[in-house]
Amino acid sequence: MKMGVNWLTALMHVSFCLPTECYLFHKTAETPPQKETIKHSVWRCSICTYDNDETMSSCDICGVLHGPLLNNSIYDKKRTANIFDLKSSRVSSTVVGRDEAVKVSSMRSDSSNQSTEKGKHNRLDEINILKNIEVGPPAGSRTSDNCSASVQEGWLGHVDESSVAVNLRSSGKSSLSLMPKERNVMVDDSSSSRNGGEANSLTSNLENISFAAKSGHSNDANPGRAISRAQYKPEKWMLPEKAEQSLTQLNLAIVGHVDSGKSTLSGRLLHLLGRISQKEMHKYEKEAKLQGKGSFAYAWALDESAEERERGITMTVAVAYFDSKRYHVVVLDSPGHKDFVPNMITGATQADASILVIDASIGSFEAGMDGTKGQTREHAQLIRSFGVDQLIVAVNKMDAVDYSKERFDLIISQLGAFLRSCGFKDSSVSWIPLSAVENQNLVSAPSDFRLFWYLGPNLLDAIDSFQPPTREFSKPLIMPICDVIKSPSQGQVSACGKLEAGAVRSGSKVLVMPSATIATVRSLERDSEACPIGRAGDNIAVSLNGIDGNHVMAGGVLCHPDFPIAFAKHLELKVLVLDGATPILIGSQLEFHIHHAKEAARVARISLLLDSKTGKVVKKAPRCILAKQSAVVEVILQEAVCVEEFSKCKVLGRVFLRTLGRTVAVGIVTRIVEEQQ
Ligand code: GTP
Ligand code: MG
């Protein structure tokens, strides 16, 4: 977003209501017991278990459709799935008219207005799964694509991704780290045992698992895919010219345990960097004080809804922007509360890098690390499984522990070992002690003498030390849709999301999946402003012509007409069951998450149990997968999703499985067993 535009107008909020999160929670509130009996003339939602009246064609709580293929007419505005909760001001400029813009999902404000009582259903937002639009054979031929990832890649694709040395902790500003480097530089950090962590960490070892562990079926599920993505020749306009290259966009997810100070840190940074004016800050301070929540003044810049402010927690992902020396940073301030992990995930799927915020206070760091209740571990595991390998650990609230070096070192030693076990390399993790409230070590060197022992960079410098993300400019278009905005009076529809590959401009023809409909790009918007071209890495809103709005849905994908994305419900996955998670059995019912889609899934088969260190097959057809074990499984989804094998397209091939509000496994799609035609 450019200077002069009120940054708040660019705040977007990502909301994604998981089944188990379809209730409103207080910080300490537990999920209300779910009804055990199915009422007469109701149908029970397979996702959130809500008993719907039989007249409802989709779940009243989570929006999941009831029954097979339904007419498009069922897609009333309320039910159209999307997860980005864009402020109407954001939709106002070019994509759709200011007053006409309709947020298709229920709004943040809906959630605040509708229910605040414990146990009452909370329509925070509606699930971003729309299925059942008539899916004809996709236009264009299918590809047997083999472009983006090699089958030699390690567990969840960790191996091929950037791992450049950015160890900033004790060495001061690393001149190296400020230089752009080639990605894929492998750093041997096997000797790096600063924290004496787990020598043979589970996930690092899993990097050795090769796709040889596939079940051996030939991949002939996509016979029509004739054109390889590798053969694609990009047009000249798709590639950025050197001269036009301004700051590289860096999508930065701010994650961490509830109350660790993510929003306060984000708000403070934005204020220090001039994105929040003194006047606005004054307003937040005054309002926060009036409500007896003075300490949340900076957080209020991000936590906009009445409910978030009242409860003092972030519920949806807030998006804001600032420029550093090297990057146009898109801040994705995530919720830390366990009930909103799915929302956090929606932001994390778009992240190039992440800041994991830790509350250094006594007891709080420990609470975040708690295996069952703490979100520090789950967030770290999730962002890593989404391919984020560059991490800043912002050890916040150092003021609360007297800026103690001992406390900082203890956090490094305990959390460092865990991060290693998630697959983060020591060399790609920076540790920054700071205090958001006291403005210590954010954009300048600490002024508090108690931090004299710290010689490393401040937070902003550490952000600038991230390696630039790799962008697939010259690949065919892929944009997973995370939100849909409709302007019924003008008959316009816009798909929002991050361009993962390729580029679009006005007049481009795009294939909208899963409806397999061709549309023409009418205009583009980036950071609330019109832009002529959107390229890989950009978060954009694409206004489409020539398509019925009901054929554009969150969880879908915009792609190149000649390179359609697969649409399937029977998949083979390679999964790793997380530490402490409940075992996965044949027949287990789980929530299946993939990019911006979610589906109910059943484990149909556990084909192979793999040695987590070597990737070798340990057992064929085991009956269950225990925590820390990895396996090849087949899942059958209730409805098909847009998907690709991980070896062909990482972003559409990463999955995770959840149940009862916890993530139980992360994984990748190794094979599309049967594609929907
Ligand atoms: P969720 O989004 O709900 O997970 O919370 P959060 O991580 O965004 O935390 P938030 O910014 O809302 O801050 C929570 C509380 O921590 C507020 O009372 C802040 O004032 C306080 N806080 C944040 N940063 C600091 C800090 O550096 N020092 C101290 N002492 N308190 C802080
Ligand atoms: Mg917050």
- Bound small-molecule species: guanosine-5'-triphosphate, magnesium ion
What radius of gyration results from the CA coordinates?
23 Å
**What is the third-level CATH name, the topology of the domain at 249-465?**
Rossmann fold
CATH superfamily placement of the domain at 249-465: P-loop containing nucleotide triphosphate hydrolases
Tally of DSSP helical segments: 11
Largest β-sheet summary: 9 strands, antiparallel
Main location: cytoplasm
InterPro entries: EFTu-like_2, GTP-eEF1A_C, P-loop_NTPase, T_Tr_GTP-bd_dom, TRAFAC_GTPase_members, Transl_B-barrel_sf, Transl_elong_EF1A/Init_IF2_C, Znf_RanBP2
Pfam families: GTP-eEF1A_C, GTP_EFTU, GTP_EFTU_D2
Domain Tr-type G: 247-477
Q: Can you walk through the features of this model?
A:
GO terms for molecular function: GTP binding; GTPase activity; zinc ion binding. Its main location: cytoplasm. It is found in: Cytoplasm. It comes from Gossypium raimondii. Belongs to the TRAFAC class translation factor GTPase superfamily. Classic translation factor GTPase family. EF-Tu/EF-1A subfamily. This protein is 14% helix and 26% strand. The N terminus is likely disordered. Strands 5, 12, 13, 14, 16, 17, 18, 20 and 21 form a nine-stranded antiparallel β-sheet that branches. The protein has an eight-stranded mixed β-sheet with strand order 4-1-7-8-6-9-10-11, sandwiched between helices. The protein has a six-stranded antiparallel barrel with strand order 22-28-25-24-29-30. It has eleven helices and 30 strands. By secondary structure, it is α+β, with helices and mostly antiparallel strands. The longest helix is centred in the middle third of the chain and has 18 residues. Among the domains are: 217 residues, P-loop containing nucleotide triphosphate hydrolases (Rossmann fold); 82 residues, Translation factors (Elongation Factor Tu (Ef-tu), domain 3), CATH 2.40.30.10; 106 residues, Elongation Factor Tu (Ef-tu), domain 3 (Beta Barrel), CATH 2.40.30. The site of guanosine-5'-triphosphate has 22 residues, from helix 3.
